[in-house]
Each structure stands twice: as C-alpha cells, then as structure tokens.
Amino acid sequence: MRNLKLQYCNELDAVAHPRRLLLQPELNGGASDTSFVVADNKVYAVQESGDVPPKVIADLPDIVGAEFLQLDNAICVASGAGEVILVDPQTGATSEGTFCDVGIESMAWSPNQEVVAFVTRTHNVVLMTSTFDVIAEQPLDAELAADQQFVNVGWGKKETQFHGSEGKQAAKQTASDSTVSHDVQELKQDVSISWRGDGAFFVVSFVAAQLGRTFKVYDSEGKLHHTAEKSANLKDAVVWRPTGNWIAVPQQFPNKSTIALFEKNGLRHRELVLPFDLHDEPVVQLRWSEDSDILAIRTATKEEQRVYLYTIGNYHWYLKQVLIFEQTDPLALIHWDTRVGAEHALHILKESGKHLVYRWAFAVDRNDAVVGVIDGKRLLLTDFDEAIVPPPMSQRVLNPHSYINVFTSHNTTMCLYTSCGQIYLFENIRQLSEEHGRPKTLMPDAELSRLQLANLTIFSKHYLLATHSSAGSTRLLLLSYKDEVNEQGEPCYRVQSSLRINGLVNAVAVASHAMDKFYVQTVNNGHTYEVSLKADKTLKMERTYVQLAQPADQIDWVISDGFISDGNTGSLVTLRNQHLLHMDGHLIGEDVTSYCVVGNYLIYTQINAMHFVRLKDRRQVASRNIERGAKLVTAVDHKARVVLQLPRGNLEAICPRVLVLELVGGLLNAKKYQKAMQMARKQRINLNIIFDHDVEKFVVSVDDFLREIKESQWLCLFLSELQNEDFTKGMYSSNYDAAKQIYPSDYRVDQKVEYVCRLLLRQMNEEDKRFRMPVITAYVKLGCLEPALQLIWKEKKVDASLADQLLQYLLYLVDVNDLYNVALGTYDFGLVLFVAQKSQKDPKEFLPYLNELKALPVDYRKFRIDDHLKKYASALSHLASCGEEHYDEASEFIRKHGLYTDGLAIYREHKEFQKTIYVAYADHLRASAKLDNASIMYERGGELQQALLSAKHTLDWQRVLVLAKKLGEPLDQVAQSLVGPLQQQGRHMEAYELVKEHCDDRKRQLEVLLEGHLYSRAIYMAGLQDEDVLEKIAPALLAYGTQLHSSLQADLELFLDYKQRLLDIRQRQEKYGVGNIDANVDLEEVDLLSDTTSLHSSRYSGTSRGTGKTFRSSKNRRKHQRKLFSLKPGNPFEDIALIDALHNHVTKIAQQQQPVRDTCKALLQLANAADADPLAAALQREFKTLLQVVNVALDEIWTPELLGNGLMAQHLTGPNVDYLALQKEQRYALISPLKRFKPQLIVMDEQLEILQ
Fold first, then answer.
1. Number of DSSP helices (H) and strands (E) in the chain, helices first
2. Phi/psi of residue 802, each to 5°?
3. ELP1 first N-terminal beta-propeller domain spans which residues (predicted)?
4. C-alpha Rg value of the chain to the nearest Å
C-alpha cells in the first residue's frame, strides 16, 4: 500500500558522455561530495558543489569496466586491450594490477570486493582475488556435467497442456518454432555480468552459437553451477536481485513483453509484464536498488527515453514512477546509490553532462481512511471505513491517460501528478464514480514543463506546493490553478510565487489547522523551517522550528483533540531513516518502522510491537505485540480501527484497546450508554468501565442508564461482570488519570459490587417485567438468594410461565443444590418443591425427608433444617425455644460445634444451664492452653478450685490470691508457693513484692533481691533499715561485677574472632570464587542452595539437581537449621552462620547497656568498699570499648551486597547478569531477611561522669 514519494531531484553538472559512475563510501560518518565519472576513455573526479571543474585522474583507452575499491582507496580500471590498472583518486598515481593478452570484454567486482570476474574477448570466464591471483578460468561455452543437465520427465503432451495467454497456437508449434528466429550474428554480442548481493554467485549473459542469448551461473570459486533453460528472445540486459532470489532478464513474446525472473538454477520462476513492446521500446539498462525494493528499467525510443520504477507487494508488480526524458539530451546511464542510507537515490547522467540525483522514500498516501496506491496508469483507491480490501485489489480504480507519479489529497480534494506533467484534480474523493469522478485536467505552463517537481502537496483550495532543487539549493513553489489558462487556452497551473532555501528540501508538511503555514525539512543540516503565506500570496520564512542532528525522511504536523488550544498549536512528528521518531525534537522511540496519528494518539510500530503515545503529554500509555515486520497503513478514528500491512503484502485490521476505550469514554460522557455497551461488548471490553469511567456521573445518571439499556440481558451482563476493582486504575489505566477520579462520599472500591447492585435495586421497579431478571442478578451478586427466590415465588402466583423462566435463569446463575438449600432455609415447603421439581433431584431422595420434617413441631423442625443447612447459631436459637427437655441435646450441640458464645447469649435467662455452658467453655479453653480465659470461665461457672489452678499455671499471682481468699486458703502459704516459679521466669521484682507483702522475714526479702541482681533496690531497703550494707550486699555485688567484667571481655574476644573469620572467608571468596573455597563440600549440603547455584568441587561438577530436600517436617527443619548455622570451621556455609551469630551477639550486647549501668551505679554506692570504685570504672570502660568496636565494625560486616539493595539488584537480571553476584545473592537468601540488615545499636549517652 506504499507509494514512491519523490523527496528531491537535485540537478548537478558532471562530465559529458559519461559511461560509468563511481561513488565513494561514507568517510568519517559523512558522505563524500566527490564522485568519479568514466567518460571518453578518461576517469574524472567531480565535485558535487560544481565550483571546482572536473579533474582527470586517469587516461586509458577503451575502458570496459571500473570500480572504486574501498579497502585500497583506489579505482580499478580495465581496458579492452586487457590492461587492468589501479589509480589513486587523490594523486592520480597508477599501478599495474594484471594484464590479459587476449583483451577484456567485461569486468565486475563482487559486492564485498574480494573477487573480480572477467570475461575475455575469447569468451573465457576468469575469476581473480582482490590481489589479482587467478582462482579459476574456463570458457563460456563449457557444458554442465551430465548429472546437472535439465531432465524432461515427460509429463503430458504439448498439445494437451494449457498455454495461458499464448493461445491455442502455442500447442501447434514445433520445437524449431520456439528457437531463436533471428540469425545469431544479428544479435547484440554484449556480455553482461551481475553478482548476487552476498557475493557467492554471479551470472554472465552472452550470445551462444546455437541458442542465442542465454546466461550461466557461476560461484565465487569459478565453478559453473547452472545454465538458463532454453528461452527465446532474451535481451542482453541482466541483473541479479541483491537478495538473491531472482535474475531479471528482458524477454519478448509474440503477444507480450516481460521482464523474465529466473531462479539461481536457471529455471523461469515468474515474470513482470511490461506496459510497452520491447520491439518498439527496447530495454537499455536494468538496475535493482541496493535493498532490492525497487527495479529500475531504462528504455529508449526514437522520440524519448524513459525510466520505469517497479516495486512488488503481495506477488503483484506495481509501476510506481515513470521518468520521461527527451532525446534532444539523451540519457547515458542510470546508477543506484550504494551508500548506507541512500539506497533509494537514483543517479541519472545525461550525455550533455547533466547529473540528476533522484531521492525517493516509501510513504502511504492516505486521506483519513482513504488510501491510494499508484500502479502505472491506474490509481487504486480503498476506503477502509467501508471495507478492508486486500491488495492488489481495491475498492475503486481511476484510469487517467498518463502514468501517475504522485497522489496527494486534502479533505475532499484529490490531486494526481503524471509523468508528462499533467495534474488531475478530483473534488470529492469519497464519491468517485463514472458520473462524479470526472477530473479537472491542468497542463503545466512553459516554465513548469521543464522542471521536475517534488513534494507536491495540496496547500489550500486553489494552491499547490512543490519543490525543485538544483546545485544544492531548493525553490519552494506556490502553484496556482484557479482561472489559469495557457497559450492554447487550456486550463493550466503556474508559479504564483517562490522562495529559495539553501539546501535540499526532502519533506514538506502542511499545518492543516491553518492553510497558511507549512514546514520544510532540509537534508544538509537537519533544519525544519516554518514558512507562511502572506496576504499578497508571497512566501516568507518565519523561523527555524526545530533542529535535528540528522534530517528526517517523513514529517507530519499533528494537533491533539483535532483543535488548537490556547497553549498548544500542534506538534511536528519526524521519522528519520535511522528509524528514530521525534516529536518537536524530543525522542519518542527508536527502531520505528512506521507511524500514524489517530485522534489523540500517535501510534508507531517497531519490528514486532505497536506503541501508543498520548499527544498532549507525549507519554507512552500502551503497547501490544504485532506480527513481525507489520507496518501501519491507516486508521479509522470513529471505529477505533487500525490497518496494518504485513511483510508478504496482506492486510490485517485490528481495534486496539486504547482507541476503543477512547471511543467508549466519549460515548459515556455523552450518556449514550446503549452505544457504549454495544461497542464494549463487540470489542470485549469489560463492562465495569461503564461504572468506573465516571463514578459520580453514573450515580447521578443511573435513571438514564436504565432508560437507555432496553435489553434486560444487557443489564444482567453488566451486573454479572461487576468486580470490586477500579478498572481505570488497573486493566484500563492507559486511558485514565488516577488523580482525577472522584468517588462519592459513601463509596468504597472494595464494596463496589454491593454499592452498584443496591443502587440499581433502588431504581429498578420489581413490578416492571423488564427488570425481573436484572433484579434477580443483583440479588445473586449480593449473595441474597432468598429475596430472589421469594420474588420468583411471588411471581408464580401471578404468571406461572414467567416464574418458570425466572427460575431457570436463576438456576443458570446458581448451583441447584445451593438453591435447594436456600429454599429449604425459608421453611416454605411449597417453595422447596417448586425448586426441587426444576432440578435433577430424585423425588425418592427429598420427599421422604420433607415428610419427616413436616411431622415435627415447628421449632424443632426449624432446628433440624438449620442443622442440616449448617446454620448452627440459628439452629441453637430454635432449639432453645423447644424448652428444658432439650437441655442435654443443646449442651451436646454446643460442645460439638463450639457455640459457647452463642449459647451464653441465647440462654441468658436460663441461669443454671448457663453455668453449665460456662464450665464447658472453660474446659474447652483449658484444652486449648488458654488458661487465663479458662480461669475466668470457671469462676463464672462456680468452679473456684479449677479457676485457682488455672490462675496458678499462668502465674497470675494477684488473681491467685483473690481466688484463694474466696476459698478460705491461707494467703501466706499460697504466696510463698508462687515465689519460686516467679524467680524461675525472671520476674524477680514481682517475687520481691510478693515476699514483702506476705512475709515479714527481712532476710528472705534481701535474698530475693540479691538472687535477681537487683542491687540498687537491695541497698535502698538496707539503707532504710540501718543495716550494714557492706556486710550483706557488698560480697555478692563485687562478685557479680567481676563476673560481668569477665563476660564483657569474653564478648569482645568472641566478636573479634567471629568478625575476623568472616573477613578471611570473604577474602578467599574474592580470590577463588564462592564455589571453590573448600574442595571438601558435603554433597548433602549442596541441597541447601537453590538449583541454579553452582558449587564446584573435586567430587561435584556443579550439575544442578532437579529435586532437593523440602525439609517439610519440623525435625528435618531443625536439623537443616543446625547444619546451616553450624559455626564449625570448614562448613561450606560458614560465612552465613557467622553473620547469623554476629547479629545475635550484637543484639545481646545492645541489651546489656542498662544492666551494666545499674551495676556501676550500685558499686558506686558502696563507698566503704575498696574494690568497688575501680571495678565500676573498669566495667564502664570495658563496656564502652566493646560498644565502640562493635559500632565501627557494623558496616564492615553488613556490606551492600548482603543488604541486596536496588543498586546491586540491577546486576542480577538481564543480558549482562553478574553470575558471581547472583551466586552470592542466592547464598545470602538463606539468611533471615531481618538479619541481612545490620542491627540498630542505640548507644546510651547516660554514662556516669565520676567514672570517666
């Protein structure tokens, strides 16, 4: 669906009578402006600027071939006399390459310039290396081996075969008729060589003595591989498509002229039918573009010469461009540019020395949904709003009388520019038929008939824009055609005004919002200029709109929302040939293959993905996968349709979710709920968006919603798809801004289903038959099946058939067994039978059970039904209504189902039975090890002794004493029995309080304080009673201080030992790797690592195990933990164990701050003890040193890689993964997440000043 758009035609001056053109490759990132032309047995260096005259760098008679060698920076020239020389293009110095004494007919270098092929005057094929060493030599008329000859398998007779367009006469031809009709000597004896793009094969076209014109295929080692099948009337031009699939040769038939396309094996594959006769218009040159996209055919007649440009798509050849040149200045040669990025530049040299550089680019010519495809004298039009017509077919065909070169359109006006310079104007592009499709034909005036126009664009109602380039500058032409006539009185178009710009303009974009501005892009410097049309119809350059590092091949002016806002006049979208997409100079995407603007979105494709960019904020909002190589053709905004063309040429139409949501949102804003739901259902959009799009608006407009949606099934579908989720923040967040979503005050997203259902239930009238099914659906979504059943049961009394339909629908939504249980829970046996009859239940199953229930008393019947339905709380309430004779059954029912709380509430008035429930509840709590709660329940149930025992087990000594007093037990004895257990649990202060209150023995009280190391409290108590502190407390305090001092020293030594071991292990890991620290790794311990971890040892090669230990049992888990955190030296996970031990050790040290401080303070209070002050100072100093050492070492132990922060995590995934870091991360994952962070060591500043 793409056309060839002429970007510019640059007119340069070269050398007269040129025969070959040599282009230099790109130098230092830029193209050289010097080219080399072979003409009149001389080689000229020509400057593109034209300021410097051509310079002769070589003079050699009868030049038959020339090539610019990139690696040698030299020009290889071959003469007919057999001389091959190398010429330095800078100095003109020559050196001999090789010499052929029999003369050279033709020379061709391989594309990689590693091999050169010669055909000598004696018709020998000679292959040489780049240093002119002979690889092979053999005659052209050499035959293939017998096993390589074509074999006739004899399928059918010639008379019975179908001969297509050749007609029945072809069946009557004899073998002699199909041979060459002309004398071989009358044919052109030229020899042509063409290489395949990869340099592996080349083809030689020549005239054979018996066959006439034919060709042979050789490989790069000079071996003959294939010869062409016998074909009559082949012409001398031959060219091999660079991609290698076809060899193109002109061939003439009695009824048609073609470009025959042969395969490598010499068999004819297909053909390109030419629109002219080769006898009247012979082919002079055939050339493929370097990317194999365009085939150029140069022809010549007595009056003129032409260049035809063909492309192929979906197995159809399209004639895209026809260039016509007068024989007054005939063409000398055509040559495709071989430089990177310039594959679509065609160099045409004339005999007069004129050098024309045509630069084309592929572009889709679209007008909204209408796409036009040029095919010779036909314009194929398809309106994708109406139908998807795959190429080469089309919806409509226009047939002007000339070859079409340009198709452009704007709004309803369409313009065709032909090869002869005529312009056809069509006024209504969407109503082109026999009656409405008569165009207005415009002839060029005398000036324009001599110019080659490029970038032809409709500018306004009566004006066209075009460009014309020459000598490195460009004229912007404003063409007028209103009321213009030429000298012959024919309607014409002429130049209204012009503006010259330095540089070559290769793209033009018209600002569609105001038809008085347009933008032009120059190749030389990447500038994009803004040009305006003044009131006097003159053009003026306003400013440089944007500057790109490299020029773009395609530019478009886009406006968001289709109008101009105060702060936004639009944006300029540019696509460079390096596949970089920019918007106003800001990079949007890389590797972009095509783009298209649809509504508020810029859509662009990459190799296998499509992306959507919102124009107003240039943010990519969505992406989706597409078939590899697909490109955008056009888009239909109001149908959310995007048309893609796949590499093979067929079309694919899709409706992207982003565009569909944009349309659905617009319909919802306009309260067109019917159309919005219709589109959402068609495009499979979740119907939650109808509510989530604008919650407040939906709540206010719920009546409009119910009025718009006529079909009750659609309402049911909407209700059934409701979910407790805001889809504008989840699935469809690409089209919504979460910050702008406003909810009603009584709305919560996690209660959305209930909110919407109740909202609709309030508005839907149950009496309206249209709402019966939606009401039932709403009840089902709310989980209220009983009201739905009651609604159907009520309807049965009015319309039995409708009730049956409603019940069938309800059974579709709900499982029949669940619905039967709900009906049974209504205690209405008529409703139960109604539901059971519509189900698949066997009457033998439910009728006996229902009859049994009918025979029971009402309350006990309800109890049995609720018990059957597992509604135990309701069943217990019905059982309580049955009286005292069911107390035993109620007690057992409560124990069985754990209904203690419900039972206490239901039997609140039954005091005695309530105590029984209390005791049962207490037994249950005690069995669950909840002794504190059990003690309270026993007390309420009157079991004080059991309450006392439960309180004792929890050491709730205050409650124990209260219960003991109620039971009349001696409080002192009970208190003494609690002191020991409290001390065992470290609750020394509580034990002291208990002894102090219930024991007058001062000595016992002091012993409790000293055993709990509560020395400050002991000194306080002794001081109040005037007792000798030194005699009773000092020995124990001094001994504890000495022990604590030794413990701190041991903690410091242990910390330093663990730390040094960890640092040594890490040093070995850095040197030898994680898996090679210890060769004696136990194979059982390898399972402690994940399957992807590699441990290399002499016994284990690192092969991953598919199944490892699961450690599911608690015993195995504990064993695994002991093995993993073993501090035994040599453990393969010793570093992990040390980190775990260090974390525990530092935590223990941090918790000792208060005990150490209290001990030092107590020692200072022993003023008369000689050893107290030195011991306190040593203790404080030792602990301070310990804290400083630990605090300094924390960052050394807990490194960033152990923390696993984001900076390190970026090396654990992706193509550049750091496997060493990944292996370490897997090892550290075995550590508890809390212990991977260094412990918080908060140092207290309240040190005793007198000990400093």
1. 35, 55
2. -65, -40
3. 1-338
4. 48
Whether the link from the prior residue into 392 is cis, omega within 30° of 0, is yes
> What single letter denotes the amino acid at residue 506?
N
Q: Are strands 268-273 and 283-288 parallel, antiparallel or unpaired?
A: unpaired
Could you give the CA distance from residue 584 to residue 546 in angstroms, rounded to a whole number? 6
Kindly report, residue by residue over 970-987, the tens digit of the pLDDT. Answer: 887 877 888 788 878 878
Of the candidates 386, 419, 415, 425, the one whose C-alpha atom is nearest the C-alpha of residue 404 is 419
Give the residue carrying structure tokens 């750091």.
1218
Q: Are 544 and 527 in contact (CB under 8 A)?
A: yes
Residue 1080 neighbours by CB under 8 Å, 6+ apart: 1097, 1130
Least-confidence region, from 217-226, 786-795, 992-1001: 992-1001
Distance (Å, rounded) from C-alpha 1200 to C-alpha 222? Answer: 64
The encoded tokens of residue 28 equal 């230092």
- Strands of the sheet containing 370-375, edge to edge, are 365-367, 370-375, 378-383, 396-398
Whole-number Å distance between alpha carbons of 709 and 714: 7
Those residues with Cβ within 8 angstroms of residue 836's Cβ, 6 or more apart along the chain or in another chain = 820, 823, 843, 846
For residue range 249-306, list pLDDT tens digits in order: 999 999 999 999 999 988 998 999 999 999 999 999 999 999 999 999 999 998 899 9
Of 1167 and 656, more confident: 656
Neighbours of 1128 (CB within 10 A): 8
Check residue 738 and report its DSSP letter.
Answer: G
Least confident residue range of 457-466, 805-814, 917-926, 1166-1175: 1166-1175
How far, in Å, are 115, 126, 195, 267, 868 from residue 226 at the CA level? 20, 17, 14, 9, 89
Rounded CA gap, 1214 and 284, in Å?
55
Interacting residues of 613 by C-beta distance below 8 A, sequence separation 6+: 583, 588, 589, 601, 602, 603, 604, 619, 620, 621
Token pair 């065909």 is found at 397
To 5 degrees, how large is the angle CA 683–CA 687–CA 688?
A: 140
pLDDT computed for residue 164 by the predictor: 67
The number of residues making up the chain comes to: 1252
Q: Predicted confidence band at 1170 (pLDDT cuts at 50, 70, 90)?
A: low
Which neighbouring-strand residues pair with 507? 521
DSSP tag of 718: H
Q: Where are the domains of the chain?
A: 921-967, 1014-1071+1117-1198+1237-1251
Give the tokens for residue 68.
Answer: 């610019």
* C-alpha distances in Å from residue 780, one per residue of 249, 628, 691, 765: 75, 46, 19, 17
Q: Specify the 3-state DSSP secondary structure of 1055.
A: helix
Tens digit of each residue's pLDDT (9 = 90 or more) over 448-495 = 888 889 999 988 778 899 999 887 889 999 998 887 888 777 888 888
CA distance 131 to 95: 12
Confidence check: pLDDT of 375 > 80 = yes
Confidence of residue 1156 (pLDDT cuts 50, 70, 90): confident
Nearest to 460 by CA among 536, 537, 522, 527: 537
Query: At 1210, phi and psi to the nearest 5?
Result: -70, -15
**Coil, strand or helix at 1078:** coil
User: 492-502 and 440-444: which strand pairing?
Assistant: parallel
Report the 3 state secondary structure along 843-866.
HHHHHHHHHHHHCCCHHHHHHHHH
pTM for this model (two decimals): 0.72
Q: Are 593 and 609 in contact (CB under 8 A)?
A: no
Taking only the tens place, the pLDDT of each residue in 898-949 is 888 888 888 888 888 888 888 888 888 888 888 888 888 888 888 888 888 8
Question: How far apart are alpha carbons 650 and 630 in whole angstroms?
Answer: 10
Tokens read off for 765: 């009238």
Q: Which residues contact 42 (CB under 8 A, 6 or more apart)?
A: 56, 58, 59, 60
